[in-house]
Amino acid sequence: MIKSRDELNRFYLADKIALKEHAYAPKWRNLIFGEGDIYHFQLLLRKVEYYHNKNKNIFEKIFLSYLYRKYIKKSQLLGFTIPLNVISQGLSIAHRGYIVINPEARIGVNCRIHPGVVIGEKHGKSPKIGDNVYIGPGAKIFGGVTIANGVKIGANAVVNKSIIEENVTVVGIPAQVIKK
Fold first, then answer.
1. Which of 145, 114, 117 is nearest to 129 (CA)?
2. pTM score of the predicted model
3. CB of 37 within 8 A of CB of 30?
4. CA-CA distance, 54 to 49, in Å (whole number)?
5. 167 and 151 in contact (C-beta within 8 Å)?
6. What are phi and psi of 68, to 5 degrees?
7. Which one of 68, 102, 159, 178 has the fewest beta carbons within 10 angstroms of its own beta carbon?
8. How far apart are CA 121 and CA 127, in angstroms?
9. pLDDT digits 0-9 by tens, 86-124
10. Which candidate, 46, 42, 9, places its Cα nearest to that of 25?
């Protein structure tokens, strides 16, 4: 949770580094080709999280309301349903396309998420995803599962059981470890 300006700046920097080339798209390329939209979405996400978490005066509440509406509009444009305070710093969203994340899920540092990913609840329990996790296109993660650090989840994999072994690759329906 971002509670101070220093934390906000750390999140900005970590997200910029995680996105690499997308973060440095010139404004004219953004206008013509749509490059940098994801980076701008992530900046907006972090700013809304910051103002949502801090003690606000009346002007900051009004500003938060404006930012939140802008955040929702950008989310809809890109196809993302990403709630506040779910993902830690270093988020890297690969492309536009639908991404749905449950508000109770928790995602660690330096996670890369591709389009088509659904991270949802099952029987009232939501996933806990570790640091440096790669989630491939179309992957689905459901229930009160725990994903260890450094796990790579393949395209279209369905994870419905915990993966407690670090630095492994999982694929399939249901997901199974194929590479250590």
1. 145
2. 0.86
3. yes
4. 9
5. yes
6. -65, -40
7. 178
8. 7
9. 999 999 998 888 999 999 999 999 999 999 999 999 988
10. 42
